[in-house]
Amino acid sequence: MHKQKKEVVAGVSGIREVFNYIRRYRQKTFVLKIEDSLLDSTLFPLLMKDIIQLHDVGINIVIVPGIRHTIEQKLDQAGIRTRFVDGVRITPVSALPLVKLAAMEVAETIISQLGAGGANGIMGTWIRARSLGVSQGIDFEFTGRIEKIRSDIVVKLMEENFIPVLYNVGFNSTGKSYNVNSNEITCCLCRDLDVIKLFFIGQDEGIRVENLTFPGEIVPNANGIFSNLDLSQVDYILEHNTDQLTYHYREYLENALEVTRPQNGVNRVHIISGTREGSLLTEVFSSTGLGTMVYRNDYAYIRMATPEDVPEILLLMEDYVKQGNLVLRSESEINDRINDYYIYEVDRAIYGCGALYPQDNNQGEIGAIAVNPSYKCKGVGKKIMRYLIGLGQKRGMNRLFLLTTQTSDWFYGFGFYPGTPSSLPLGRKVRYNNERNSRVLLLDLVSRSQDTTPG
Ligand SMILES: CC(C)(COP(=O)(O)OP(=O)(O)OC[C@H]1O[C@@H](n2cnc3c(N)ncnc32)[C@H](O)[C@@H]1OP(=O)(O)O)[C@@H](O)C(=O)NCCC(=O)NCCS
């Protein structure tokens, strides 16, 4: 192809990629933790402009400023020295007014920049905190821990098109103020709000591989940065680099692990530099960002069941059997086919289960789909289903089927279509329970794309 034409085609596909991302992220929430050391950078106004552009295309933005650098400056000027214990600053009463001043100054600078670009930032603490107290004989004085964030206020402000800026001061029920950690604010927001992306924007371009031990399958990018890390790789790096990881890197990675836990819902955490032009937009609008992205593998929590899981599987299914959603299976029936069962497990708690039973004629039956009522409607069922469909594809099955009494609408969402008992493979047809009269649903796998294949 002619060089100029090639460039135009590449440009067009880039534009299409951006539109796709905009569609995907509109009305979704990003939380941005921005280090205050960037405030003096000549590129800071450009970074703020990029944030406003994201907001302008309909992405909800919440900003949490890091304040450490400004606090240090103020304490130095006042000749006050403070001590850190495990990365946590002890805040004496003399330091508290300076902490507050630093927090407000930084938030105010951010809001002015937003205002200059035509966006409405609004600052507040909306944070209920209490004293960290005395731990192992050490009194943390006016350092606090977050009790709760008024996330309802944050949501309302975003609905009104504001960009909330939450700085690191919290109040207790009597109005006493505490210095709280901005990373803790970030994590709380990710727990409370429906956040899909969290950005740590600082001086680091990402996590550098230098001096670190990491799993062999990871290939760093040309700049010596980890481009993508899944959660098991993050675990590995944290575990094998106790002394090598800087405080910053450890904090980024530990927070990334925390917010991407299934109950928190953040899919991706990006660690990017605020001193490299365009790093935020590149990270959001292209598949090859410049920093480090930590991502959750949707299937990381699914594993094959073992005989030890059988009592819990039975317990999980018990009520659904009583309600008529599931057929009764005995302990020995499950045990005999335990390798066909898969469970979704987090921190040793079983959130859900499902099974794929191989059948004649290269077919597979999906069954025993159940989600613990406490974790319903959080996507657990969908992930189990997609996993089992992907497994069927991987095993070269050409058709999946299932029998259901009350859940057909849900299964249609995965592409299943209605069949009849006569569509079942012979061995299964003879065991069809006419009295139960379940609906038969079918899914042909041959023509399906690979996107459901478990990683
Ligand atoms: C059906 C079941 C597996 C869904 O799992 P889940 O983790 O709660 O569901 P997900 O979070 O993946 O999906 C939620 C969506 O499914 C919908 N949904 C849940 N149960 C449904 C049902 N019986 N029929 C139709 N839609 C249903 C929810 O309304 C929600 O819709 P939305 O995304 O538009 O808000 C779960 O509710 C369950 O265990 N049910 C009882 C057991 C059962 O019926 N198993 C199937 C036997 S054949």
Automatic annotation (TrEMBL):
Catalyzed reaction equations: L-glutamate + acetyl-CoA = N-acetyl-L-glutamate + CoA + H(+)
Enumerate the Pfam families for this protein: AA_kinase, Acetyltransf_1
Q: Which residues cross the membrane?
A: none
What are the recorded Gene Ontology BP terms? L-arginine biosynthetic process
Q: Which GO terms describe its cellular component?
A: cytoplasm
What's one GO MF term for it? Answer: L-glutamate N-acetyltransferase activity
State the pathway, as annotated in the record.
Amino-acid biosynthesis; L-arginine biosynthesis; N(2)-acetyl-L-ornithine from L-glutamate: step 1/4
Q: What is its EC number?
A: 2.3.1.1
Highest rank taxon of the organism: Bacteria
Annotated ranges, domain N-acetyltransferase: 300-437
**UniProt keyword annotations, A-Z:** Acyltransferase, Transferase
User: Member of which family?
Assistant: Belongs to the acetyltransferase family. ArgA subfamily.
Q: What is this protein called?
A: amino-acid N-acetyltransferase
Q: Which organism is it from?
A: Desulforapulum autotrophicum (strain ATCC 43914 / DSM 3382 / VKM B-1955 / HRM2) (Desulfobacterium autotrophicum)
Q: Which gene encodes it?
A: argA2
